[in-house]
Amino acid sequence: MDHMHRCGWANSSPLMRDYHDTEWGVPERDARVLWETLMLEGFQAGLSWEIILRKREAFRAAFSNFDPKAVAAFGTDDIERLMGNAGIVRARAKIEATIRGAQIFNDMQERGDDFAAFCWSFTDGKPVQGLGYNTQTELSARISKELKRRGFKFVGPTIVYAWMQAIGIVNDHSPTCFRTHEIPGE
After folding, report:
1. pTM here?
2. Which of 18, 25, 26, 86 has the largest CB neighbor count within 10 A?
3. Which of 28, 39, 20 shows the shortest CA–CA distance to 169?
């Protein structure tokens, strides 16, 4: 029997426990993974993260493993294909936002504006310690505003904060969680 003390939400299912124990809050530096996670957080809006985790592999298959160059080239036929894919969240606006997000990602990269460097620039490349109960902060509002200025959609302060938690820009593990002090990257 597992007696590790975790953040309360991580005990809702084995899938959530595994996600908590292996991914959530670990500083991510890969630009493509950062972008994929931001896009998936956008799809999560109005749903539970567990739904997105259950569908993550279907999302990856549907969106060419979140290869920004491939996704940026998606057109009308691809949108219709995705709208018919029961394995993902079929929301046209979110699908279109992901395609546009890929185009923005590529434009940034082509200008020498690395997406990973951009993401981490708000905290000078270091994770910040969260309080464990916020749903948005002044920092998530600032990042949200900059993402929107660049043309990203589904990047409000609450979605951005959830993304910051997921990719380790903020460490929001509860003080009694075994992961609180073992997150690398500080």
Report:
1. 0.93
2. 25
3. 28
In this structure, which amino acid lies at residue 141? Answer: A
> Does residue 3 sit within a domain?
no
129, β-bridge pairs: 171
Known binding-site residues for Zn(2+) equal 7, 20, 173, 177
Which residue of the set 24, 28, 41, 161 is catalytic?
41
Q: How do residues 33-48 score in pLDDT, each as one tens digit?
A: 999 999 999 999 989 9
Compute the distance between CA of residue 173 and CA of residue 19 in angstroms, rounded to an integer: 13
Q: What gap in Å lies between CA 86 and CA 55, rounded to an integer?
A: 10
Contact (CB, 8 A) for 120 and 169: yes
Q: How many domains is the chain partitioned into structurally?
A: 1
Looking at residue 186, its pLDDT comes to: 44
What CATH number does residue 108 fall under?
A: 1.10.340.30
Q: Burial of 110 by CB count in 10 Å (0-12 exposed, 13-18 middle, 19+ buried)?
A: exposed
Query: CA 97 → CA 1, 9, 20, 90, 128, distances in Å?
Result: 43, 28, 27, 12, 28
Positions of the chain with pLDDT lower than 70, given as ranges? 1-2, 182-186
pLDDT digits (tens, 9 = 90+) for 46-68: 899 999 999 999 999 999 999 99
